[in-house]
Amino acid sequence: MFGKCLENVRANVPLVHNITNYVTVNDVANVILASGGSPIMSDEPEDVEDITSICGGLNINIGTLNKRTINGMFRAGRKASELNHPILLDPVGAGASALRTETAVQLMKEVNFTVIRGNISEIKTLVLGAGTTKGVDADVADAVTEANLDEAVAFVKSFAKVTNCIIAVTGAIDLVSDSEKCYVIRNGRPEMGKITGTGCQLSGMMTGYIVANPDNKLEAAAASVVVMGLAGEIGWSRMQEGDGNSTYRNRIIDVVYNMDAETLEKGAKYEIK
Amino acid sequence: MFGKCLENVRANVPLVHNITNYVTVNDVANVILASGGSPIMSDEPEDVEDITSICGGLNINIGTLNKRTINGMFRAGRKASELNHPILLDPVGAGASALRTETAVQLMKEVNFTVIRGNISEIKTLVLGAGTTKGVDADVADAVTEANLDEAVAFVKSFAKVTNCIIAVTGAIDLVSDSEKCYVIRNGRPEMGKITGTGCQLSGMMTGYIVANPDNKLEAAAASVVVMGLAGEIGWSRMQEGDGNSTYRNRIIDVVYNMDAETLEKGAKYEIK
Amino acid sequence: MFGKCLENVRANVPLVHNITNYVTVNDVANVILASGGSPIMSDEPEDVEDITSICGGLNINIGTLNKRTINGMFRAGRKASELNHPILLDPVGAGASALRTETAVQLMKEVNFTVIRGNISEIKTLVLGAGTTKGVDADVADAVTEANLDEAVAFVKSFAKVTNCIIAVTGAIDLVSDSEKCYVIRNGRPEMGKITGTGCQLSGMMTGYIVANPDNKLEAAAASVVVMGLAGEIGWSRMQEGDGNSTYRNRIIDVVYNMDAETLEKGAKYEIK
């Protein structure tokens, strides 16, 4: 299934409109290309509706948001909603500032997101910000671990249900759920945290995966998480004496570029809960 | 001739003012440095006139334009025109949105461009947008191929004449013309399309080549196209098992860094029509 | 001492708020991660106060300043001043435009900088712009050399005294002074100038070093200069046939990632004047 998702990306070359931060944008573009998609970046309010209309999906990442680009996010998001395009929200830094939290929460109200991908703290912030009970959140420790896994799965399923989105929480253990099913994924390496933007890269790639797999969105989202984690593992195995996080960044994108269905299927480490 | 153009860049260290997109800007800066030039980036309307005044040339790339930076493009462009600096337009995404098309067309009216470099679809958009007959455009298929080469050459020469600019259309076959002569260049590799921004990089480097070769602008523009294409070929030959588009990006810039006149002359694959 | 500074960064994981240019921002983030810190980027005026409040220090780099981000610089700078956070100013291009010079000078008036890091021309511009006598400046040649070293040291000490900041002037010879002591550092390689942003990277890393070493700010600043220079030396020693500035960029960050106290102490080339 994951292999088929990958092949659909390579066959369909999904065009992904990205409104994303200027820190990791180049890597986002290159990883989308590596995966088989095609990236376009545009954040000017007067430009985004035209651009999103010619794309297959929209990736909104609030990493270096400003008032102008926030306006662009809303205009692009509403247009993409009208067009029934898959739309991803990456709420970078939600919880770290009022503006980020409020922007993410308001976007969730006005835009018809298909998937929200973030770390557990960002997702918890959205749950609180969205006005659901604090209890759901308070029961989930900040990191998803084997010890609190069942709680975390229940939390993610619950938020997926409330929002009617696929929720992807990434970290040492990744959870991807549509409220019914939850993929629990154990690919990846801790050293990926020493590279800026592996999460942003995943969001861009995930958008392309969903665009190219409209009938299997949950599986497509999970497949992209496995691709990224597996790329981290294979990329790490290719590291040589003296290599560090900059070379690791290149190697991960290189592995995504060379990934095939068989490698993906064999390397995937997951269960469904 | 191409070798001499390269050596003039290394000898003169042209200072290039870039108003360019935030997706590929780092690679643009590094490839200008690799080629022997020196990059400066500035897009604030209140800053650009001072900056462009101390530079030798201006590279305007509309890849992630916004209303503020558009204003910067016009102010920088008018100032550089006054100073008779070489000015390049890279109309990224012209045709993909009204704002991009209108901005590019309006810039062509108010700024004295020396060269316009884009892919065939972008250039076709400018031809239509500029109000020339649709016939010229309709006769040119989207991709320049051996089959439609003569038509494409005629199209490029015609647009060069109308605009009084050097026109550089890059793709599988690259065309660089000043209306009289057209360089038909067959360097490069298709895998370059899997890296974001090789076109943007070329625009930055081309600006430096033209600044450093004021008496041979056409040859200088063509030389930079050959440098980029040849770097793609040599860089690809250095790829190892498991390498992908991220490493390829680095290798291409590395080859530009190490390029010398002899390698350039020997590797150039072109004819003049 | 330098080794201890490095270890404190790795132990304390300083969170650094960066308002920096979009050209080199990705490398700044990755080098901060490589050194053991944690970067956050935010430049929106409505966002920066919240973000800087959760950080340990602030890095202000005016490389691609615009009116909105200038406003962000002031708001973040005043907030960080209130919180007594270490704050670094990197006056990129001061002297190249009125806006840059005025912004840097005004920031120095309103923000309580801990350290100012730039090249000699930028620092000279600040001295003039700040209204100190031209004589101090006129006596210092643009490049710090062995021939004018004593004058340069006196100049840097004097400016450190006037501003009550640590002044770090980087170039072929680096000077880091708090008015009493001046570290004269001879690490580094000239080829580092062929990579965009090694100065920006140093500013980001230096901010983290100072945050993690509050009782030894001068030594911490000097240590980060040595780390960067030594990374340039070791990275260069790892270059292979055909490598160029793009690979060199990766290698330098990789070396910072792998740097340990012993390597740092052994490789440091400095004297105190």
Describe, in plain words, how this protein is organized in 3D:
With 273 residues, the first copy, chain A, is an alpha/beta fold. The first copy, chain A, is built from twelve helices and nine strands. Chain A has helices spanning 2-12, 25-35, 45-54, 67-82, 98-110, 120-129, 134-138, 149-163, 198-212, 217-237, 245-258, 261-267, and strands at 15-19, 38-41, 57-61, 87-90, 115-118, 166-169, 174-177, 182-185, 270-272. The first copy, chain A, has a nine-stranded mixed β-sheet, sandwiched between helices. In chain A, strand 3, helix 4 (67-82) and strand 4 (87-90) form a beta-alpha-beta unit. In chain A, helix 2 packs parallel to helix 9 (198-212), helix 9 crosses helix 10 (217-237) and helix 10 (217-237) packs across helix 11. The two termini of chain A are 17 Å apart. Chains in contact: A-B, A-C, B-C. The B-C interface holds B 22, 25-26, 29-30, 33-34, 39-44, 46-47, 50-51, 54, 68, 238, 249-258 and C 21-24, 26-27, 63-68, 93, 96-100, 194-197, 242-247, 249-250.
List descriptors.
273 residues, 14% strand, homotrimer, 12 helices, alpha/beta
Sum this structure up briefly.
The structure is a homotrimer of 273-residue chains. Chain A has 273 residues and is of the alpha/beta class.
Structural class of chain A: alpha/beta
- Backbone shape of chain A: globular
Integer-rounded radius of gyration of chain A:
17 Å
Helix content of chain A: 40-55%
**Oligomeric state of the chains in view:** homotrimer
Largest sheet geometry of chain A = 9 strands, mixed
Helix/strand order of chain A: HEHEHEHEHEHHHEEEHHHHE
Output the number of helix runs of chain A: 12
How many strands in all of chain A? 9
Mean pLDDT across the residues of chain A is 95
State the strand order across the main sheet of chain A. Answer: 2-1-3-4-5-6-7-8-9
Report the largest inter-chain contact: A-B, 30 and 30 residues
